[in-house]
Structure formats: C-alpha cells, structure tokens
Design brief:
Blueprint (H helix, E strand, L loop, with lengths): L8 E6 L21 E7 L2 E6 L4 E6 L2 H13 L8 H5 L4
Antiparallel strand pairs: 1-4, 2-3, 3-4
C-alpha cells in the first residue's frame, strides 16, 4: 500500500513558513515540485520541510497508523531531494 492511499494516515500541507520578511504565503503547494529538505518526528506526526519553504505533515489516524509512521520514518532519509509526490507514492 502507498503512503497516500493509507486509511491509517492523514497527510496534508501545513501553513507556510515566513522568515526574514520574505513573503512565502503565496507559494503554490504542488506535491511534484516540493523537494524534501529535512524532516522531524513529533509523537505520531512526521513534519516534512521542503526546499521551497512549504511544509507538510503525515499523521497517524489510529494505532495501525503509528506503525506505518515508524516504517515511513525509517525510509525518509532516502527521500531527501525527492518530491512530496514521490514520497506519497512510496510503498509502506
């Protein structure tokens, strides 16, 4: 099953990061052009940070989702410099 198809996970973009007076609020969030720069885990949430300063979160929806988050976290280092679309199309 692919990450984007899992009924145990919820994934979505989250508010853009604004820093240094730059206006990132108008950035278009397109999964195919959001290239993963880094990530972090907080409980059962994976926060994904992209090079264009957009962010996304993958959250466990239930206890099965927690196990899926563990599996995804182990794979994410291999997806640095890959698109969010590629991440969502990855098999868990």
């Amino acid at each position: 099953m692919k990450i984007g198809e899992s009924k145990n996970l919820k994934h979505d973009k989250i508010a853009n990061i604004s820093t240094g007076g730059d206006d990132y609020d108008n950035l278009e969030f397109q999964p195919r052009v959001c290239v993963l720069d880094s990530f972090e885990r907080t409980d059962d949430i994976l926060l994904l940070y992209f090079k264009n300063r957009t962010r996304a979160a993958i959250k466990a929806h239930n206890t099965e989702g927690s196990g899926e988050i563990d599996a995804i976290e182990k794979k994410l280092p291999n997806f640095i410099k890959h698109s969010y679309e590629e991440i969502l199309n990855t098999e868990i």
